[in-house]
Amino acid sequence: MLKLRYLFDNRDLALMLLNNWNYDKKSLNMLKYFRISANAIYPYKHNEEIYVLRFLPWNKNIETEMNTEINFLHYLRKNELNVLEPVLSKDGKYLLKKITPWGEYLVCSFKRVAGEQISELEYNDDIIYGMGKTLGKFHKLSSKYTGYQKESCFDILDNAEVYAKKKLKKEKMVVLNQIDRVRNIFKDLSQNVSNFGLVHYDFEPDNVFYDEETKKLSIIDFGSSIIHWYTMDIEQSINSIKAEFSHIDYERIKTIFLNGYKTEYHIQENELELFPVFRCFDELRSYINLKDVVEEAWDNEPKWMVDLRKKINNKILKIENNMNKVV
Questions:
Q1: 122: pLDDT confidence band, cut at 50, 70 and 90?
Q2: Per-residue pLDDT at 192 exceeds 90
């Protein structure tokens, strides 16, 4: 998630950046359906087809990672996985670095995938099975790809340790103990090209679309992708489905999802037993990120910022309670 100061609707900035692409002027009212979290997303139309503009503040590492992501999407599309299609700007580039009155930004655009978000659909076994199958195909392709430059899970743990030592007080030792525990388990875990590589890290019902007409699933939003064990994606995905369809038995969801996955790619059965460790990693990463997001504070903050800060602090407290239970 971006810093709080970036989490507001900046329509002028969006329009300034959008002018680098072709768009239908009559579609500008669609910009009000923006979404901002790890980056800003603004929808628009060109020739009556829907596209999304995506941008975030520039830094060198992010630029490298976004170029990796775009190249990876081309690779996935070439191998017939349904993912977002990167769109060339007016001057023939997929990724632009732009100086604006609000600072330097990285901006790109994608053509919207077909169908509806799974989170908006009625639950059924075929969709959950299809999610598992799609993730398996994605991991099979990822295992053959070598052109990525992304953070690894070990980088994230190292950065979390630095942050905890420098910024945390009351929860410092709990967090550091959790980091050491997860790192030590990861170090002992088998790591090779068949089980370790670029994962989506946000493969959940909001980021998977289902097209009723073609019966095909598509994946969006690779912005959170990192280098990790593929089992991390499996755990995170099943956990998100459980949260989305809370009335369905967890073990039933897990079985259906894994059955779909196995049709495309193998599963490291011993890693499935480490689901709690992968969940702990995810909570550690979220915790450090959320603490960093709310670190800045200002006098007379607008109501949306006060409400969002309260919501984030509640998430932080929930994760702290979980970590204390483990310790």
A1: confident
A2: yes
- Please write the tens of the pLDDT for every residue from 242-255: 888 777 788 889 99
pLDDT for 152 beyond 60: yes
Question: What is the dihedral angle through the alpha carbons of 107, 113, 115, 117, rounded to the nearest 10 degrees?
Answer: -40
Rounded CA-CA distance 7/10 in Å is 9
Structure tokens at 116: 């509806």
**Phi, psi dihedrals of residue 253, rounded to the nearest 5°:** -55, -45
Domain termination site, one of 59, 92, 112: 112
* Placement of tokens 């969709």 in the chain: 127
Residue 258 Cα to chain centre, angstroms: 21
Q: Does residue 194 share a domain with residue 101?
A: no
- Domain of 162 in residue numbering reads as 117-326
**Do 79 and 139 lie in a common domain?**
no
DSSP character for 6?
G
Q: Where are the beta strands (DSSP E) in 151-237?
A: 196-199, 208-211, 216-219, 226-229
| CB-based contact 256:128 (threshold 8 Å) | yes
Give one DSSP letter per residue of 26-66, joined into a string.
Answer: GGGGGGGG-EESSSEEEEEEETTEEEEEEEEE--HHHHHHH
| End-of-domain residue from the set 112, 138, 170 | 112
* pLDDT band of 24, cuts 50, 70, 90: very high
Q: What angle do CA 64, 65, 70 make, to 5 degrees?
A: 100
| 184 and 68 within one domain | no
Helices 172-187 and 303-326: crossing angle in degrees, nearest 10, is 60
Q: What is the pTM of this model?
A: 0.92
